Amino acid sequence: MKRHLLAIIYTLPVLFLACCGGEEKKEEKGPDKFAIALADSINDKAELARWIEHYDSLGDRHSSLVLRQKYGSALRNASEFEAAIKTHGTCIKDAKELCDTLQLIIAYNNQGTNFRRLGDLVEAGNFHYAALELCDKITDDTTYTARKNVVRTLNGLGNVMLSLNNNEVAENMFRRALKGERELGSLTGEAINLANIGAIKEREGQLDSARIYYSLSLEKNIAHNNKIGISLCYQNIGNIDEMEGNIEMAKRNYLESYNIGKSTNDIWHWLNSCTALAELHLKNQEIDSAEYYTTEALEAAEKINAKGRLPHIYKLHSEVLKERNDLKGALEYTDLAHIYSDSINSEENKNHLYNLRIKYEVEKRDAEVKKAQANAEDEKKLRETITWSVSIVIILAILTLIALIIAGRNRKRANIILLSSTYKCNFLGADNKQ
Fold first, then answer.
1. b/e 49-75 (16+ beta carbons within 10 angstroms → b)
2. C-alpha angle with apex 279: 275 to 285, nearest 5 degrees?
3. Domains of the chain (ranges plus CATH)?
4. R_g over Cα of the chain
5. What is the pLDDT of residues 215-251, one digit of tens each?
6. How far apart are the first and last CA of the chain?
7. Which of 35, 51, 95, 374 sees the fewest Cβ atoms within 10 Å?
């Protein structure tokens, strides 16, 4: 009886706690590891397209999604923005259907970058904030992909704010992204955010600080052999040289940036050095050279529909035409510059993104409050569970003790009766002998 009661005591609380637990969650099948490695190693559009077709034929949608994300980025880097938007739109759809939150965040950020490069800052902000909201909902944020998603989202939003001249918010986001990239050991990620912080310092007239950040970014890009990054850093350092009056050094850095950038397919980034050279030659009254670069930049920007770049290029081309005494043409391009600039930097766009940021912050605080309340409720339930379990153990222990006491008394009574019977039998046997 004692063994049975002790078994009940130790087993019952365990069963009680087990019943309070949730159901086991089933994990969705993820992308093939080989597909992830392929996406990391391939930049060629045609090869990426072949692998997407291969995984589509196998019905492996997760692996196909990973490669399609990279394919869309390759299209964007080749300035094929319309195709990139279509591809990443498919990625968003597939990620939702597969309930793959991590890939959905990647797709949102990719789409945000696509629209930002086209100069549509409202759409860019919408996608980046959608990504940030999902990042906050990820419970397991210790994986590399989850952490990388956060820093990419912060960088995307920082660039949107930088485009709207909101330096304070932009720098905050870039510094948070930089910290995350350092923790992840990403040289390219560090380089990007160092350069972005340098751009803010340049805007604010802190040229020494800007040069330091640009130089650090260049070191990271060279270490990772990132040609686009190297090109951008030479162009940025050339900006500082020009602002400090070192024109020959500025021209040398701009040309280095121009040549390296032209060897890549990234027209959108290459336009930076192209317009920098045009502007420098224009200031020096080298009109033929200025016209060469403004015409080249104008054709390239219109070809890829880079709305964000066009206002500055139109303005430069207008000034070149003015120097050529083509006042009618100069006026037309001045008007175009104003139209495109107003469409990008309108108060409506700024207010939309400001309201979007406020909405995000409010919803994030509300979510934190709800989470704290849920945690408190869980702790309360856990305390109640422990209290009931301990109470059951104590009650069972008391019952066991009472049972043992009763059993002990019964044994004692039985022994007394047995001894009494034995004594009586011995006494009667002695009488008979007499």
1. eebbeebeeeebbbbbbbbbbbbbbbb
2. 145
3. 271-343 (1.25.40)
4. 36
5. 999 999 999 999 999 999 999 999 999 999 999 999 9
6. 47
7. 374
